[in-house]
Design goal:
Blueprint: E1 10-11, E2 18-19, H1 22-33, E3 38-39, E4 46-47, H2 50-61, E5 66-67, E6 74-75, H3 78-88, E7 94-95, E8 102-103, H4 106-116, E9 124-125, E10 132-133, H5 136-147
Antiparallel strand pairs: 1-2, 3-4, 5-6, 7-8, 9-10
Length: 154
């Protein structure tokens, strides 16, 4: 059978690590059993990832700066500039289809959907307002913060 059916396993020959994904084994081998290292020529920094060495060199020893074209934000890391632009200047929005929740981060929308709109699960409703949630302790937190008391007991 193949990995899609769950029977194929890839085992590390150096330790007890087992995965059903060949790429997972490759990453494990690179991280835990590879002798390849990238060393900074200016200090003692060492990493197994070429990308991290490049980031380190830019952040600590380089003169490269990434500047936002929309404001005066400046950083030495390209990924920090990308994150800044997405948060402060980005137009991508993820909208909940069940309520007015909006976020710039897709994983946050997924978490919101799991917590507030999980279909087929028990929903807990506040008796003082229209607040509804799938997690009882979150309702307790809401009631205490908004209404000053505890609504549900275990």
């Amino acid at each position: 059978m193949n990995a899609h059916h769950g029977s194929t396993r890839y085992k590390c020959t150096n330790c007890d690590y087992v995965t059903k994904w060949e790429t997972g084994l490759k990453i494990h081998m690179d991280v835990h059993h590879s002798s390849t290292q990238f060393k900074c020529t200016n200090c003692d920094f060492v990493t197994k990832w070429k990308r991290y060495l490049k980031e380190h060199m830019n952040a600590h020893h380089g003169s490269t700066q990434y500047e936002c074209t929309n404001c005066d934000y400046v950083t030495k890391l390209e990924r920090s500039l990308k994150r800044h632009i997405k948060i402060h200047h980005g137009s991508t929005q993820y909208q909940c289809t069940n309520c007015d929740y909006v976020t710039k981060w897709k994983p946050y929308l997924k978490r919101h959907m799991d917590v507030y709109h999980r279909h087929g699960s028990t929903q807990f409703k506040c008796t003082d307002c229209d607040y509804v949630i799938a997690i009882k302790r979150s309702l307790n937190r809401h009631v205490k913060a908004r209404h000053g008391s505890t609504q549900l007991k275990c």
